[in-house]
Design brief:
This protein is mostly helical. It has one domain (3-202). It has helices at 3-17, 21-50, 57-85, 90-120, 123-148, 151-170, 175-202.
Length: 203
């Protein structure tokens, strides 16, 4: 067995597990932006269903598009700040690779669910899509826990898995969007804010 290869693998895992600083800040900022914006969208959709907020179909579409535009702008700002730091370490490259792979996985799932839901005009199939994404989030946080062995990471992972299962059970009900909003605020935005806090302490 090649001892140099083993040494390199251990160094990579150590660097990945100890990712901090700007890389951790960027990840945290992305989670905060996504959790707050899409959590807010879920709350507005629930309020619409309850009759507490009234918007025309056009305004509803503009609102949803606006949320996505705001998130895209936030990611551009985060990416720009990350490039300014010029961090090119193993951990940073691994972080970027994980996000790229996650994005491809999300796109693949969207294509799969869209190809089935649109011809059938089924909202039920569409509602299974977020549940699948939540399960993927649970898996990602589980990997983070196995690398760093921090209990808060395990708690976030368990929260995502529980939320994914809950969404599956609540498909077609008003409580579906409330659970989605809760998960986005508590298991995405809140951990993201904590990651940003940890990055400032590490600076």
């Amino acid at each position: 067995m090649n001892t140099d290869t083993i040494r390199d693998d251990l160094a990579f895992m150590k660097a990945l597990a100890e990712t901090g600083g700007q890389t951790q800040w960027a990840g945290g900022a992305a989670f905060v932006a996504g959790g707050v914006l899409y959590g807010f969208q879920c709350l507005v959709q629930w309020a619409q269903a309850e009759g507490l907020v009234v918007m025309s179909p056009l305004m509803t579409i503009l609102f949803i598009v606006g949320i996505t535009v705001a998130f895209t702008i936030a990611m551009i700002v985060v990416g720009y700040r990350g490039r300014k730091t010029k961090q090119h370490g193993i951990a940073n490259k691994a972080f970027q690779s994980v996000f790229a792979a996650s994005g491809l996985g999300t796109l693949a799932l969207f294509t799969i669910f869209a190809s089935v839901a649109i011809p059938r005009q089924s909202i039920v199939i569409w509602e299974l899509y977020p549940a699948s994404l939540f399960a993927l989030q649970g898996s990602a946080w589980c990997v983070a826990f196995m690398l760093r062995r921090r209990l808060w990471l395990a708690a976030v992972s368990a929260g995502w898995f529980a939320s994914a299962i809950s969404l599956g059970l609540l498909v077609g009900t008003l409580n579906y969007v409330l659970v989605a909003a809760f998960a986005l605020f508590v298991f995405m935005a809140l951990p993201g804010a904590y990651m940003m806090h940890l990055s400032r302490e590490a600076a």
